[in-house]
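User: tokens in, sequence out, please.
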């Protein structure tokens, strides 16, 4: 389950990054002040996807090392996936 949630989380981050890049290049504004300077460039996907991959990797390592943390890792990733899914649907509805 952790692997599936991790892949989904990283995939949603990639979709969000490319959707943001497309939207900014078509006249929309990025509201996140940390990502606004790079939102329309190819740095945006790297700035979103690489930290997501690292976070999932850390969670997987923690779950392997301390099996009791697997439930917490699964719950955290599930909440992140639901949140990002909601954000993506909201963003698509605004286009």
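Assistant: Sequence out:
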């Amino acid at each position: 389950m952790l692997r599936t949630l991790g892949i989904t989380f990283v995939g949603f981050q990639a979709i969000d990054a490319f959707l943001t890049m497309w939207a900014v290049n078509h006249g929309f504004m990025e509201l996140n002040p940390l990502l606004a300077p790079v939102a329309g460039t190819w740095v945006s996907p790297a700035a979103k996807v690489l930290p997501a991959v690292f976070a999932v990797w850390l969670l997987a390592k923690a779950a392997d090392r301390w099996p009791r943390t697997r439930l917490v890792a699964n719950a955290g990733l599930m909440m992140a996936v639901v949140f990002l899914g909601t954000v993506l649907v909201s963003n698509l509805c605004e286009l």
